[in-house]
Amino acid sequence: MCRRSNTRSSRTGRPRSTEADTAILEATRAALVELGWSKLTMGDVAGRAGVAKTTLYRRWANKSELVVDAVAVLFDELELPDLGSLQADIEHVVLQFAALLERPETKTALMAVVAESTRDEPLRERIRASIVDRQKRLVLEGRMRAQRRGELPADRDPVAVDATDDLIFDVIAGAVVHRALVSAEPVDEPWVARLSALLVGGLGAAAAALG
Length: 211
Hints:
Layout: H1 18-35, H2 42-49, H3 53-59, H4 63-75, H5 86-102, H6 104-117, H7 121-149, H8 158-182, H9 189-210
Helix pairs in contact: 1-2, 1-4, 1-6, 2-3, 4-6, 4-7, 5-7, 5-8, 5-9, 6-7, 7-8
């Protein structure tokens, strides 16, 4: 009579290490600043992070995916504190965004992956999912907070609201990235105040038109 083994026939694998992921993403940003996109390799990142190259490939299929995730965690640092008004909230997060873009690792990584994504549709989708869609939470949070304060009316048409949220995100991200990284102009408090006033005024006009 054979005894049934308690050993499972299949393995689920070792769980991912948060510490290893953090070290890998930090090493990726450092390598990108030092070497640039064209010279960056998975092997170089593995060496800097102190892990085997196979560890990287278990998590990321290529350096494009790795760099996107290395940038995404930086954007996750953005916050929208309640400063009492929609305009003040917008000004604060825009200034945070501008400060983030001033960091060499953010600037280098973002410009590299955006340029590469123009000929790589899967990479473009990863940027959208890992950075753009995740950061749209700030727009949603700001709008809901403004509604609670009475600065904006309650939602009536969910489809129109979603389209407006997308537009707000595009306007803010596009304006700040263009000014900081393309025009190389300062994203300072006076400029941010003008941008925020324009956005708030536009939202008020849009709400009145829909109402």
